[in-house]
Design goal:
5-stranded mixed sheet; 3 helices; mainly beta; 4-stranded mixed sheet; about 5% helix
């Protein structure tokens, strides 16, 4: 039996899914609707964001900082977003907010009176999920705008996924241009005139592999996007967003997976040599909006880490208080966004000087090992050992100075390792001693020469290089990302010129 045009239309749209998306997406939950009044009483709203504005701001390019304001409080959701980047669902109490895009990268909320590149008032209903898409180019016929869509999920069968398409590509050639979705198999039009700045509803689709292309509606046969045939797995829930202006910013498809509601897990590491001795610091997460209580972590001496603590997703004032009492002197306050289901390591870094200010660096942790017979390892550099941060580059090499495979080179202060595919972790053999050393970048000058380390099978480890300032000996903190933590001090000599 031939399928209806509507069914074939929605089946074909899945061509823009990438293989990575299949891994990242979550299962579609059964339909469970919460009435607006009920949801407002006990559930926050959630907002996902896509930066699809094809802007080129002076000195900052397409980078923007997304912030929200309410009742005189402004807090950062994500800093330094570039076009095609997304933010997963962030929880906010129900209410009316001003969403603003500020040029460039901001570590703290902008001063009162700072003018954003664009702002828009958005009302959020408790218990509801939303997707907000920044669109436009900043001038007619594509002014900047925030498109707000409510994420309502219909019921699905076990063999189905859910798909939604948003057209946010400000294509050249006059007024905002619509697009057609074409079935590559027979060149039939499956979606006709999908308007700029609009989106379809989430639609159930049978899992499978499909092949379509995106053409300009005003110029049949002019192909704008032609992705390869790609799969949609059963249980996938995803929004596909067409972005780019086709000239200065190539047109492409951005995938935003839906994330079911859930708590996050957060641990904090004190890697900031801001005083001589093991200066104690107490981390506190203070919800920016709403009436939720503070989350207070245990006091930490320098080099210590907390265990993971369950934290509700949301936007927080993350404070570090000097000493063991929460009424002590605040050494650091920084806006921190925690998303549904995240597992985070928050590292306190810096010496408290203008060169190395106190700051928080957030690492997204791997909760499961890549394999049961190997170990996963990443390295984060938190050692302010050189006068300028640019001089802190190190390489990790074998004992004979041979590079590793994949190589770890020029890792600098406040950077984590990055390997092919974008992962911070690499897989290493387990059960066998691994004898490595750390050298200054481009030299054979040893910075740290730890003893051989043997990793257990099925383990996940984060290694944080610390020290080199205020009398703190260079060393490393070894964290077991499967809940346990320990501290390992290693004999080392930092060599600087």
């Amino acid at each position: 039996m031939r399928q209806s045009v509507t069914t074939r239309l929605m089946l074909a749209l899945v061509a823009a899914l990438s293989l990575a998306l299949v891994v990242a997406t979550q299962a579609a939950p059964p339909a469970q609707e919460v009435g607006p009044a009920q949801g407002a009483n006990f559930l926050p709203a959630r907002v996902a964001f896509v930066h699809a504005a094809a802007i080129n701001l002076p000195t900052t390019g397409s980078a923007v900082t997304l912030a929200v304001s309410r009742e005189g409080q402004t807090r950062i959701i994500r800093s330094g977003l570039t076009i095609s980047e997304t933010v997963s669902y962030v929880s906010l109490p129900s209410g009316t907010y001003t969403f603003s895009l500020y040029p460039g990268t901001l570590d703290t909320p902008p001063p009162v009176g700072t003018t954003p590149a664009y702002s828009q008032v958005i009302t959020l209903q408790g218990g509801e999920d939303y997707t907000v898409v920044a669109t436009g180019q900043g001038a007619s016929p594509y002014p900047l705008n925030l498109v707000v869509l409510r994420d309502t999920l219909p019921a699905v069968n076990p063999n189905q996924g859910l798909l939604r398409i948003i057209h946010a590509a400000p294509l050249p050639g006059g007024p905002p241009a619509a697009v057609d979705i074409i079935n590559e198999a027979d060149s039939t039009v499956l979606i006709n005139d999908l308007a700029y700045g609009s989106g379809t509803a989430f639609t159930p689709l049978v899992g499978g592999i499909y092949d379509v292309r995106v053409d300009a509606a005003a110029a049949p046969g002019t192909t704008l996007l032609d992705p390869p045939p790609l799969p949609l797995a059963p249980g996938t829930v995803v929004t596909l967003v067409a972005v780019g202006n086709g000239t200065t910013i190539p047109a492409s498809i951005v995938a935003l997976p839906f994330t079911p509601r859930g708590n996050a897990e957060v641990r904090v590491v004190h890697a900031a040599p801001f005083a001589t001795g093991d200066a104690t610091a107490t981390p506190i997460l203070d919800p920016t909006f709403g009436a939720a209580a503070n989350t207070v972590f245990q006091p930490l001496n320098y080099g210590q880490s907390t265990l993971y603590k369950t934290v509700a997703p949301g936007i927080y004032d993350a404070r570090v208080v000097a000493g063991a009492a929460i009424t002590g002197t605040v050494a650091l306050t920084q806006s921190l966004t925690i998303e549904d289901g995240q597992r985070l390591t928050v590292v306190v870094v810096g010496t408290g000087t203008p060169t190395y200010p106190l700051a928080l660096e957030t690492l997204s942790d791997r909760a499961q090992p890549a394999g049961s017979a190997t170990a996963d390892v990443r390295i984060f550099h938190a050692a302010p050992f050189a006068p300028p941060p640019a001089g802190t580059g190190v390489d990790v090499v074998a004992q004979n100075n041979a590079p590793l495979s994949p190589p770890i080179t020029n890792l600098r202060y406040r950077e984590a390792t990055s390997f092919p595919g974008g992962s911070q972790y690499t897989t290493v053999p387990s059960g066998t001693p691994i004898d490595l050393k750390v050298v200054l970048t481009g030299t054979t000058d040893t910075a740290i020469d730890p003893p051989p380390v043997t990793f257990g099978p099925g383990t996940v480890q984060t290694i944080i290089a610390v020290g080199g300032a205020n009398g703190k000996a260079p060393s490393v903190i070894v964290l077991n990302d499967l809940l346990e933590t320990r501290r390992l001090w290693l004999p080392a000599v930092w060599q600087t010129e």
